[in-house]
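Input for the complex:
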Amino acid sequence: MRTGRPRDPLVTQRALAATWDLLSTKGYSALRIDDIATSCGIAKTTLYRRWPSLAHIVVDAVVSRIGDRTFTPTDDPVADLRAVSSMLVQSVNAGKDSWVSIALSLHEQSDSELRLRYRERIIDPVRELLAEVLERTALAGCLATTIPTDQLADMLIGGTVYRLVFLHSPLTEDEVTTIIGGLLTAR
Amino acid sequence: MRTGRPRDPLVTQRALAATWDLLSTKGYSALRIDDIATSCGIAKTTLYRRWPSLAHIVVDAVVSRIGDRTFTPTDDPVADLRAVSSMLVQSVNAGKDSWVSIALSLHEQSDSELRLRYRERIIDPVRELLAEVLERTALAGCLATTIPTDQLADMLIGGTVYRLVFLHSPLTEDEVTTIIGGLLTAR
Amino acid sequence: MRTGRPRDPLVTQRALAATWDLLSTKGYSALRIDDIATSCGIAKTTLYRRWPSLAHIVVDAVVSRIGDRTFTPTDDPVADLRAVSSMLVQSVNAGKDSWVSIALSLHEQSDSELRLRYRERIIDPVRELLAEVLERTALAGCLATTIPTDQLADMLIGGTVYRLVFLHSPLTEDEVTTIIGGLLTAR
Amino acid sequence: MRTGRPRDPLVTQRALAATWDLLSTKGYSALRIDDIATSCGIAKTTLYRRWPSLAHIVVDAVVSRIGDRTFTPTDDPVADLRAVSSMLVQSVNAGKDSWVSIALSLHEQSDSELRLRYRERIIDPVRELLAEVLERTALAGCLATTIPTDQLADMLIGGTVYRLVFLHSPLTEDEVTTIIGGLLTAR
DNA sequence: TCGTAAACGAGACGGTACGTCTAGTCTTTGG
DNA sequence: CCAAAGACTAGACGTACCGTCTCGTTTACGA
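Predicted:
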């Protein structure tokens, strides 16, 4: 038997919208739970009833925002690979509202369930998409290396992130083209 | 004219030792400036006289600890590549006292000088070492790809970090062997 | 025409019983509306439908519990005075479930109707009883002072309360005997 | 050895002044620790370093404000009694900044040391003053009752407080005159 | 040898955000 | 319309931590 006042679905919606808004405006490190509450007119207690911490809200906000990316492959695996790689670089380098900075902040988070959720909804889809495209490229005989495609995907994503986060010089589209070129068999 | 009481050189030493100790025990996110001060018996004021912020202390602590890695190359570039790759994986996966988590936390840091210092002392050496070894491997004609060696280095390091930080399943030695194998020309 | 579900008379009863129970167990300052609701299995909404605030519930609980004290006077006014005084001291010093602490908390209450109700049901009866007995004592010529009897009653009750609340050393039975003795004419 | 930065005496001063100000403006029940902090420009943390709770600040504020009342007796004990009684009534009925409401709020306070401090500095002086004057009146043979003077003092103060807090009809100067008159021997 | 200027230890201070608590209101389902 | 359950608003609370400040004390150097 369901009883009691049901949770207002608008609350979740408004909270996540406000969170996303603040996130892309000020960035994760400047995100304050009170600001979220104020900006969407929801009491802090209500936020804490639904999410155990700020990090949980953020994960949900990102998930609800960019969780449903789709890519419809063509029958040219090489073209697909170039397209997906380009998308990858753009999304990583997107700035304050990149999924990367949230992933970084989750690394030290003790709540493994939260990390898992973010990984399954945000990180894995990108990885799987890239790995698939690489796999199809390999099956088409266009890949010049025998490195397993999923590890190749890790290296491509990792490389992009590394350039941004560690070296602070984001990977450019040209460089991606070079790298992809180096991965393909000469024709 | 230098006058006044000279700075006690032991202070820096003790502070960095204590910082490193706490860092490897509790991890960066649980590091508190007061804890450092207490654990080494140095006043917080003294710490702030020498370092402008907690992050600076941490950077120095890491630098003084693992800043002097050396690798003496042999005349077998392939063997060197395998050795360096193995070292890389170990250092990334080292745990709480890995240089990786500090690098992550510096990403959002506004002080670019600090980031630069960490990069020059900690991040770049690893990268350059790997790039060099890759370059020598390429010159020896053993590399199966035309991707520029420095970008290959980024991908290798980035991939390792990505596995740890994003996927929370550290790269294993076996997997490195596979990857390196895929990079080399068949004999 | 009265329609709909009739109010369950047991609800009021259970609520007041639970309130009184918590009141005498934990005291007024530790009384929580949610605790009352939980402990008697009544929804908070239901409580608020019947009483406008926590204070109102408490007042009703006390009224229903100790609102019906009776004292049947004898034809010996001095003996009556001694008996009533003794009762007074006992009720004031009763502990956590004394009517005194509720009276104190009502002092700052804005709802004057509520205060009035408590006064009429709890405070005034005691006062009037004492004043009456004093009056009869005076008429019998046994009172050694010309202070009006109602003000004398105020002083007796006030003195007892003052000892408890302000000095935290409750008036003893012996002291009451002394005071009453001092009020009476020597024989 | 005294070490560390000494506490700024102005902090205490400013905090207590602000507390007293808010207390007499809005009353105890509307007193907020944040308001005190804001209104005197002192960080909340600093307040909590010096006083463990709001109640402690308030006690200190009242003590520092009205802790040093003096009364210089004349050689007419009856006149003194009338004067002191009048002062008593005025101070009890003073309104929001009366010492009475703070005393009431301390009743439920668990910290007995705090209660003791308030009693010793605020409550007892009034009581002792009144008891002394009564005693001198008795020695002069002007007292019409054999009730011990300290208990008489309790009754007078208690009666005044009772009228204010329980009956919400403060004792008037005229009534005090009547009561005092009733206590004195006819001439 | 003695003054002086900086280093140092200790801890107060301002400020910001956090997560918790509680009173009282609102909104459902079910009787 | 009542009752139960629980979501919701609003606002104060006390804590944690950072980086700064202000003392008294200590120590090397130069006058």
